[in-house]
Amino acid sequence: MLSSGIGTRTDAPTTRRMTALPYPYLIFYEATETEIIIHAVRHAARARVGRMLLALAFVARRKAGFSTATLNTEPNTRAERCYRPNGWTETARSPKGEIVFQRQLSVDPSLETER
Questions:
Q1: Cα–chain-centroid distance for residue 31?
Q2: Strand, coil or helix: what is 85?
Q3: Strand runs labelled E in the chain
Q4: What's the Rg (C-alpha) of the chain?
Q5: Model confidence pTM above 0.85
Q6: Is-contact 72 99, C-beta < 8 A?
Q7: DSSP-based three-state secondary structure for 3
Q8: Is 97 left (phi over 0), alpha (psi -120 to 50) or beta?
Q9: Per-residue pLDDT tens for 75-106?
């Protein structure tokens, strides 16, 4: 589990910013005792970055004993168009109007990587 102290503080009191190398991914996240909430991932190239990071997060969650993953995104975004055809199910709307998606994680982590 990521430590809640990794990364740099942001203006939002519970959100931290972390740079992941060797590529300059900028990740904005919150870590609680039970989950890691990724708010945004930024990279100039963007090509397949989100899918790669999701696959890594899936493997980490399975190893930690979780069977589902949950994420939020604003409606009518590139992220929403990516999640819907890739096994994510809309389960709710947040108070801010964001779509809350959930997905079952497969038992075999090799199935979580992009084909």
A1: 12
A2: helix
A3: 8-9, 16-20, 25-31, 36-42, 68-73, 89-93, 99-104
A4: 14
A5: no
A6: yes
A7: coil
A8: left
A9: 998 888 888 888 899 999 999 999 999 998 87
